[in-house]
Amino acid sequence: MRALFFCLTLIVAGLAAPPAAAQKVELSVDASKAGAKIDRQIFGQFAEHLGKGVYEGIWVGPDSPIPNTRGIRNDVVAALRAIKVPNVRWPGGCFADEYHWRKGVGPLRPETLNPNWGGVIEPNTFGTHEFMDFIDQVGAEAFLSVNVGSGTPQEAAEWLEYLTTAQPTALQKERVANGHPAPYKIAYLGIGNESWDCGGNMTPDYYVSQLKIYSRFVRNFNPAQQEKEKMLRIAVGPGGGEPRFTEWTEAVMKAYQSRQWSWDMEGLSLHNYTVVNWEKKHASVGFGEAEYAQILKKTLEMEGLVSKHSAIMDKYDPQKRVALVVDEWGAWYAPLPGSNPGFLYQQNSLRDAVLAALNLNIFARHAERVRMANIAQMVNVLQAMILTDKEKMLLTPTYHVFKMYVPFQDATFVPVTFNAGTYTHGDITLPRVDAVAAKGTDGRLWLTLTNVDPNRPAEVEVRLAGVTATSAAGETLTAPKVDSVNTFEAPQTVTPKPVSAKVQGGKLTLRLEPKSVTVISVGR
Ligand code: AHR
């Protein structure tokens, strides 16, 4: 019986698809041809008061048995430091347009409600000082989203005065009494969130008039931010490619072009989630190649959206003074069974790693205009970097991509030409290989290469000019299946492995595993 089983196994193995032949892809990189700076701010994060994103994910309180510094999880901070998070957008999202900052400062923290996200109690124990402490521990900059929906310009103006003034005003004294004598640095100010939807269902014209008021009165008084490092104001921008969003971008950018001395803006936001069907969202676990191909096809729509809204911005701002800030992006799947649907808790698979790389590559190729982005969201919500379960923490495949991409922070884009080839599944055909090259701040040439094809490896041959190299080394991220995930029981299933390649006669040859993301640097 055992022998028969053994024979059958061999027969079945023999009938299985033969190992797929590697496909050849030729690329050319000339390191002497420099493009725009890939702003490190495109690797920004988003932390909303939503589900376990802030409470449990970041904040456990000073009395928690989970190791913490002033209530903030040490494990999460250490992991975020390692990916050099440049900025964190907070407190929302839809939450921001119902947030009243006074409830989150001082000794009395009233319990309020979070109607957007599960209707749960918001304890307000994580407020302004806790957020500023958190980003300080991480080494990131503050991106505050102020309440334009249910708040007032006065409330927002007072928040900024509270945070930033060095003068002994009543608000400054309150800040000092609450433990922070020095003015805080606020690098970015988001003026509203999705004001065309959860942020108040405003018309473009109504929003533009709000934008002018908030831009004028919500001032940053930090003496160190008056000449240099000025706070950048980010206006609400489009949420997709529909005509109403074309109209929105047109209205805001037209107003910008004819602005008077009394108001200004430095960024326009763009929100775009990877969702195929909002009513019946894809699962984040237990899917196959069909769902893998569908999601990746959908995510590549980011290219068209960025191009479309950049073109409108070019009409009104040809000098590209206003940045396109993709401050909400990522995959939005069905909540994991058993979780509170309002908490947007999903798993994160190898598919998400590939998706993240494709989007970061799009931002890098548009580096002149896209100078900031924030993946949604940082911990325990949507396409997270980190998942936690009480004292346990795991790093997701998306986290690993962000870590592998650290050398691209503030690197100089280098054009790379290649024939991507195609990957087809059913009626979906996608470019098979994607690549971006950049000169890092370390002076090295860096390449990121993604093989979208889950079945065939790719044999890449990179013709290098403008750089003397004999070898290349880096890391590659792949896993047994498109839906492989890291779990608390098996947290290393999707984790990067070292990879190296030879360079001979100015040619670098490297094999890309199926469904993989590889980052290498070229050197001697
Ligand atoms: O990230 C979740 C939600 O998605 C945000 O609160 C909102 O801005 C967007 O619709």
Structure, explained:
The protein is α/β, with parallel strands linked by helices and 524 residues long. The chain has 11 helices and 26 strands. Strand 6 (112-114) and strand 7 form a beta hairpin. Helix 4 crosses helix 5 (170-177) and helix 6 packs across helix 7. The longest helix has 16 residues, at 301-316. The chain starts with a helix and ends with a strand. Bound molecules: alpha-L-arabinofuranose. Alpha-L-arabinofuranose binds at residues 48, 92-94, 193-194, 198, 328, 376-377, 382.
Summarize the structure.
With about 525 residues, the chain is of the alpha/beta class.
Output the keywords:
26 strands, 11 helices, binds alpha-L-arabinofuranose, 10-stranded mixed sheet, disordered N terminus, 8-stranded parallel β-barrel, 524 residues, single chain, alpha/beta
Distance between the termini: 58 Å
* Shape by Cα distribution: globular
* Percentage of β-strand residues: 25-35%
- Please state the average pLDDT score: 95
Number of beta strands: 26
Largest sheet: 10 strands, mixed
